[in-house]
Amino acid sequence: MASLSALGNTLAFPLSNLNPSHNLFSSSSSSVTKLFFTRSIPISRISKRTPTLVRASSSSSFGSRLEDTIKKTVSDNPVVVYSKTWCSYSSEVKSLFKKLRVDPLVFELDEMGPQGPQLQKVLERITGQSTVPNVFIGGKHIGGCSDTLKLYRNGELEPLLSEANTKKTEG
């Protein structure tokens, strides 16, 4: 397992390294191990997806760790979009960002296996929004498609984007 890497309390490695005959995780404890497939990629790299396998040791702490991961992701990236590939509203938001030459970090929830619905539930708990797209700019929850388009039409979106990108280059 040459490309195994540690990510906090999780382990990740490219799925190309997955071989069913390997014992991926050995544990003498009685904790339940869950495996989740994840993808998180900027929209410009959609054709170069690199899925990874993530290990979480217990489902009760998984929700809080997932919430922490979401909060860290949206604070560490200027623009984050939680999306579904088949959703026309998600496509509209991604097209708008492309038009504005913004490269958001996009999570396609419908391509994440069992972790997609779990992420969506945690996002609802954090934001109160159960639908996609779920848009964050500069660490702040913006809302969905209508909210993003309204900000754009009112001339408020581009200043938010500029401020978010400025924060990232200063920090």
UniProtKB/TrEMBL annotation:
Pfam families attached to this UniProt entry: Glutaredoxin
Secreted is among the record's keywords: no
Record's keyword annotation contains Metal-binding: no
CDD domains per record: GRX_GRXh_1_2_like (cd03419)
Segments forming domain Glutaredoxin: 79-142
InterPro entries tied to this protein: Glutaredoxin, Glutaredoxin_euk/vir, Glutaredoxin_subgr, Thioredoxin-like_sf
UniProt keyword list: Redox-active center
Domain of life: Eukaryota
Family the entry assigns: Belongs to the glutaredoxin family. CPYC subfamily.
Protein's name according to its UniProt entry: Glutaredoxin domain-containing protein
Species assigned in the record: Flemingia macrophylla
